[in-house]
Write a structure and sequence with these properties.
Blueprint: H1 3-28, E1 40-42, E2 48-50, E3 56-59, H2 66-75, H3 79-94, E4 101-108, H4 114-122, E5 124-131, E6 134-144, H5 150-162, E7 172-177, E8 183-185
Antiparallel strand pairs: 1-2, 1-5, 3-4, 4-7, 5-6, 6-7, 6-8
Length: 192
């Protein structure tokens, strides 16, 4: 099999896996991020930069849920009501169709985060995902998202549903996997 179709299969498998584990976290873990949502962050040379960073899988621009997230966040000031509404939306509708998602991941960082600054400076990293018997190693390029970017809006409003004190100017980084260099364990070709 040539590299491009294998990379596409790997991408589609990863996005489907992410949707499944995230929907399960919403339904069974009250939204608590599972290990597969919190990859290790390594430098391009393989040095660990962080043992875990919570990521968000973002939808394609045309499928953005940012307006719905914003509406839920502004609808009530009661954190419990907001959380319950967010969990219902995420469990029932958000993760139901893997094809609605891009393959980009985002992560929020605290204001002044040294890790975010380091990643931004390096512009490349490796995200190492693991949950149960599945592993993915994704070399990524990354960049900081600017205000007004739909991925930034979706990420910020999603996280604001669970953290109403989220500062508006936090760094949000987008990770774009380089699928031709990515790996899965077990390998998809061996699973066939």
């Amino acid at each position: 099999m040539t590299a491009a179709p294998r990379a596409e299969r790997l991408r589609d498998h990863f996005v489907g896996w992410q949707c499944r584990i995230r929907a399960d976290a919403m339904r069974r873990r009250a939204g608590q991020p599972s290990p597969g949502m919190r990859p290790r962050v390594l430098s391009a040379a393989g040095e660990e930069l962080a043992p875990a960073v919570t990521t968000l899988l973002v939808r394609r621009e045309a499928e953005s849920f940012a307006p719905e997230f914003r509406h839920l966040a502004r609808r009530t000031h009661d954190p419990r009501d907001r959380r319950e509404a967010a969990l219902a939306l995420l469990a029932e509708r958000y993760y139901q169709h893997a094809r609605a998602f891009s393959d980009h991941l985002t992560a929020t960082f605290a204001p002044g985060s040294a890790l975010a600054a380091d990643l931004e400076r390096q512009r490349r990293c490796i995200l190492a995902f693991a949950q149960d018997s599945q592993r993915y190693t994704l070399p990524c390029t990354l960049r900081r998202l600017s205000p007004g970017d739909p991925r930034r809006d979706e990420t910020w409003w999603h996280n604001a549903l669970f953290n109403p004190q989220l500062p508006p100017d936090i760094p949000i980084l987008a990770f774009a996997p380089r699928w031709l260099e990515a790996t899965a364990d077990p390998d998809l070709d061996q699973a066939r």
